[in-house]
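Forwarding these from the shared drive since the link keeps breaking.
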Amino acid sequence: DAAPRMASSTGAASVAAASSSVAAFHELEHQNWEKAVAAYDKGWGGLTRQCIPEALASVGCAPGVQLLDVATGPGFAAQAAAEA
């Protein structure tokens, strides 16, 4: 009675549809964030760049150190860290 059941074709279709909608959402998010980079740079880029050297120094950024850039803008800090 405890034999495993095979997934129905309807279940497989649901998984495929969910995967497709996740991919579509990811693509939409990516496109929209790409559009926002110029506006972010205009509004916050100067302030962000101004804080980068001190922020990287405070976390001990140096060659060989691994850092995780989380929500610090369009990559200015990550680029500076990679070039350090």
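-- next protein --
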Amino acid sequence: FLARACFDVPFEASSQGEARFTMARAFSGMRTSAVALGLLLGGTAAQQTTHQQEKVEINGTWYWEGNTVPNRDVPPMPGCTVYGKVYWPLVQFPLTDNSYTLQNGWDWCQKLCKDSLLPTANGSYVPCAHFAYFPDGKCFLQDSNTTLVEAPACSTLHPCENNFEVVSGPADCKNKASWVFPPGGVTPEIGPEPVITTTEAPTFPPTLPPPTLPPFVPPTLPPTLPPMPTLAPVPSPAPVVIAAPVLVDVPEATTLRPLAKLGESCNPTLSPPYEINCEEGLDCITADPSMMGASGICSVPETTTTTTTAGPTVPPPPPGATIVGYLYTPHTMEGTVKAYTSDWYACYNLCVSNPLCQHFGYWPDEGCHQQGNNAMLVKATCNATTTDCPGLKVLSGPRNLTDRALWPVVPTGQALGNADVSAPVFAAQTMVAADSGGGGMPTLVILGLIATMIIGGGALAAY
């Protein structure tokens, strides 16, 4: 009874749209006892819920794992959800700002999955089957063509903000068969196979005789017909001159959502055709402009006196936190593409917004590349026909500029002072220099040359 009281608590939505447990407060004191009792009884769901929900106090405000709103404690349902794992692939298309939304808690992310259809590669749409809610509020949705794996980031071994882990689960906890760890004995209901109770041949009515028709009698015609009347000639009509048609360009019809009026809800950040724009002369005002995907209200813009001032000054990177003339390879992380940002700081913030990004590279043409945790720092080089190329000016750094442990470290044999002018030096070449003694060409030299061609050429060609 205690296990069912804690695990079978139903959901319902409040008037503000926030999901909550209707019985969670009544049984909050029984949660730990219910989990222990489930372990003693050998229940499948209880065996998988040993993770205790984390909480942290920051400046007198409490934050609970699975929630990003202060003082909001909606614990993920044991057995239905799981910590530190995600359904992979996380997204079906290259990762962009439209690949996720920001939600207040894991239950909001699950409700969004329940009500959403996801696009596929062939242009069709399928129901959302799973969700992944990260500690920074990002909500990713997946279809059923996925596999539950250890999360590359925000896992048990590598937690994220506030030492919290990612929360994953199905689109609905009411169907226990779709839980991450279904309880024992719960299977989808399948109806019985139909049984044929008779094999007798059907009885048909007797064959009716064909109807009897009277004999055919041909009609009698008069011997001669009266002469045809003489018709007056019809004058030929005057020729009609048809003017050449005038062609008018008609714009192609498009399906647009109606513009929102004053005081109505708006959201111009969504992708077409789901975006909602305001009428001309109105602005969409949101409570927090920095929150991606937040809705607002169409309002009259405030009249202010605009003074022309110089643009914001981009802060320089902390000394030693970044490096010029070096780049991380593979230079473009799987699931991302080359983006264009106004400065190195915007490129750094783009990497911070992606939970899988570990390093960034900002190029002279404002190109921004993201790298994962499997990237290696190498020295940039130009081809044999030039001594100056964009690779000598690339600025590379980590996702956290305040953590000295993540700052770039020059591989053995490479000088930091001449990073933007020297010939290319890779880790494989350093190993060649250490093994250059002796007669003939050592095997390590051959391997170093092959690695130089593959790594060096591949990193610059990908740019």
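The chain has a mean pLDDT of 74. The chain is about 15% helix and 15% strand.

- D.
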